Amino acid sequence: MDFKYHYTPEQEAFRQEVRTWLEENIPGNMRAPVDRLDLTEEHYTFWRQMHQVLASKGWLYPTYPKEYGGGGLSGEHETIINEEFERARVVPDFTNTYVFPTMLVWGTEEQKRNLLAPILRAEKVAFQNFTEPNAGSDLASLQSRAVRDGDDWIISGQKTFISGHGDPDFLFGPIVTDPDAPRHRNLGYFLIPCPAPGLELKRLNLLTGNDQSFIFMDNVRVPGDHLIGGDREGWQVSQTTLEIEHGGRGIVMPRDEALDNLLMYVRGTGSNGDSLGEDPVVQQDAMGAYIESRIHDLLSRRNYWMYQARQEMTYHGSQSALYRKEFRIRNADKARNIMGMYSLLGVNEPRAPFGGQPEVYQRSSLTGAHPGGTIEIQKVIMARRLGISRTRERAAATPSTSGVSGV
Ligand SMILES: Cc1cc2nc3c(=O)[nH]c(=O)nc-3n(C[C@H](O)[C@H](O)[C@H](O)COP(=O)(O)OP(=O)(O)OC[C@H]3O[C@@H](n4cnc5c(N)ncnc54)[C@H](O)[C@@H]3O)c2cc1C
Predict the structure, then answer these.
(1) Same structural domain for residues 257 and 386?
(2) Is 281 helix (H, G, I), strand (E, B) or coil?
(3) Does residue 67 surpass a pLDDT of 80?
(4) For a substitution probing ligand 1, which of 242, 370, 378, 379 has the most ligand atoms within 8 Å of its CB?
(5) Together in a domain, 256 and 394
(6) Which residue, among 403, 120, 118, 103, has the nearest Cα to 227 in the 3D structure?
(7) N or C: which end of the chain has fewer CB within 10 A?
(8) pLDDT-based confidence at 1, cuts 50/70/90?
């Protein structure tokens, strides 16, 4: 079976167009730094502007509907764009993209035009506002409260681990609207406009830097038309966000930079003049890393194909999310076995291989195990969907399965 995707001449011409444009318009000093911590104010300002330009070309969010600010292009276009963006070290948009499928499924026509479109056009940035100090894996234990006040809602409470660089224009996620209602029927899903009186964002400092924040909300006023879905449907709306976050949209991986670098390192020469790959122990680790990366690639591609083909999914998203979270930690270990102390040299160390990428990988493989459901939680979801759990569960609605335009 031939797993390689063969592009048509038209698609190759499109690739060339994207590649040339990026080469001509992205200055070398604005390309994504090896460590996201090194993103400067200058980078941020440049990319906020550039994301809007890319959106206007239809390349930032290629498959979303044109009328809401997307590109109206195909999955193949999206794949080519991903590959070329990765090649040109394009800094990703600062928005958490899980808001898009959620709004497409649950938003009204007005909300799609007034709230979704400015985010898809990269004029506004949205962060995912789910986790609370006492509600992470067990999201249904949320405590932040939304109380009606005329047409508006008044929101108070605290969120934590909210990812995003710079300041958001919106925070999206579930808040308790009726504390007396049963679990899963007691939430609304809000797009909270920022900045707002009573809303404070305080940076956390995690292993991978300070792109996560505490959010404190003290009587924050939110307009009624910023409630997505019904005022008791927040759990169901959240499941759409999580379905995508758990891998349900798949991805055609442009490339695994950590693996490519590891293989290049092994091809290099050891201190005794032999290729490192001649060492049988190194060879075993390197091939183990290669196989793991390829398996993940195939799982992600399968999901991407199923999503684009509007096939019903069950355990598939969580299977690839689980595999990704686990294999990256194993491959970071293998990189450490092979590169030794060099894998721990940071970006400012002249002797760090690949500009310090292996060191960044050591840290990001660990923090990457937590967001959007931990390793254990992915297994819980798979078990529920495979029918080997106390509760049974179907995949949540996504743009793919609910038949709305744009995926
Ligand atoms: C880098 C990073 C970025 C993040 N970004 C965001 C963001 O943008 N927005 C947002 O809302 N949140 C974000 N999070 C929060 C993330 O979603 C939570 O950390 C995650 O859901 C786990 O919740 P918790 O940290 O409260 O751990 P807990 O839920 O307290 O879990 C602790 C441990 O218990 C295990 N566990 C819990 N329940 C079970 C169970 N039923 N069965 C088996 N094991 C279980 C977990 O696997 C984990 O190992 C981010 C976290 C990190 C680290």
Answers:
(1) yes
(2) helix
(3) yes
(4) 370
(5) yes
(6) 103
(7) N
(8) low
Report yes or no on 193 lying in a domain. Answer: yes
Could you tell me the CA-to-CA distances from 100 to 58, 241, 243 in Å, in that order?
Answer: 15, 9, 12
Q: Tokens 């005329």: give the residue.
A: 150
Q: Tell me whether strands 126-128 and 145-149 are parallel, antiparallel or unpaired.
A: unpaired
Residue range 264-290, pLDDT digits in tens:
999 987 777 888 999 999 999 999 999
On whether residue 104 sits in a domain, the answer given is no
Which run of H or of E encompasses 25? helix 9-25
- In 3D, which of 271, 218, 209, 255 has the Cα closest to residue 87? 255
Domain contains 350: yes
372 and 306 Cβ atoms separated by less than 8 Å: no
Per-residue pLDDT tens over the stretch 130-161: 999 999 999 999 999 999 999 999 999 999 99
Higher pLDDT, 5 or 62: 62
CA 141 to ligand 1 centroid distance, Å:
13
Instruction: Tell me, yes or no, whether 75 and 164 share the same domain.
Output: no
CA atoms within a 13 Å half-sphere pointing along the CA-CB vector of 243: 27
- 337 pocket-lining for ligand 1 (C-beta < 6 Å): no
C-alpha distances out from residue 181 to 129, 151, 175, 185, 224, Å: 22, 21, 13, 6, 20
- Burial of 186-215, coded b for 16+ CB within 10 Å and e otherwise, reads bbbbbbbbbeeeebebeeeeeebbebbbeb
Q: Which domain holds residue 217?
A: 126-232
Q: How many domains does the chain have?
A: 3
Mean pLDDT of 243-257: 93
The token pair that represents 374 in the structure block: 């931990």
Give just the sign of the alpha carbon dihedral 143, 144, 149, 151.
Answer: negative
Say which CATH number the domain at 189 has.
Answer: 2.40.110.10
In this structure, the number of other CB atoms found within 10 A of the CB of residue 142 comes to 24
What is the number of other CB atoms lying within 10 angstroms of the CB of residue 50?
19
Is residue 361, in this structure, part of any structural domain at all? yes
Residue type, 65: P
Between the CA of 370 and the centroid of ligand 1 the distance, in Å, is 5
**Residues listed for the chain:** 407
Residue nearest to atom 44 of ligand 1 (CA): 376
